[in-house]
Prior knowledge:
Blueprint: H1 14-40, H2 45-68, H3 74-103, H4 110-119, H5 122-132, E1 139-144, H6 153-160, E2 164-165, E3 185-190
Antiparallel strand pairs: 1-2, 1-3
Amino acid sequence: SRLLNVPLLRPLTTPMRNKAKNLLSIQYESNTRILAADVSAGQTVDSWYASMREIIGSYARQMATAGAGAIPRPTVREAIDSILTGQWRYLDRFADVLDAGRRAGNMISETAIAARSMLYGSTGIGAWWRGSEPVRSGVVVYYIAQDSGNTCGNCSAAARNGPYDASLHPYPGELCLGGSRCRCQLRYEHN
């Protein structure tokens, strides 16, 4: 007997992909807050670091799958792995800051740890958009910045500088100063 009947698998609909994105974002935020509380309460920085790597990587890969509504294309998975490699360097430095603060008796607050940890979620937001990207030629991409007082300069500039060629354009979350809180979108149009 087979555990998985592959012909029964169907891609997720757009509303289901959006719901998955929202649920995964809530879960990521909750997980980072729990880890911030744990490290503030005495968990080792090494243990926090290992857990953060797992959460960030899992979140990015799950978001790519949610964005695609199915298993993401190999090029999407490779791009996410490359982006995660860069994120590990930032996370390494943050772990060093936490460790130095603890040794000096001046640990960063739980709130500050949680806030900075949320920024690593930008990889997941970008992964969702990478996964959802259509595969077709002759497409231009518009970066749609949310028009509010909270829109960062990077997102506003990305919107002003568009449209972009589909092969090279910014992704929401990846350039946003708000990281995982980015509400910007992409719009694809056939050229």
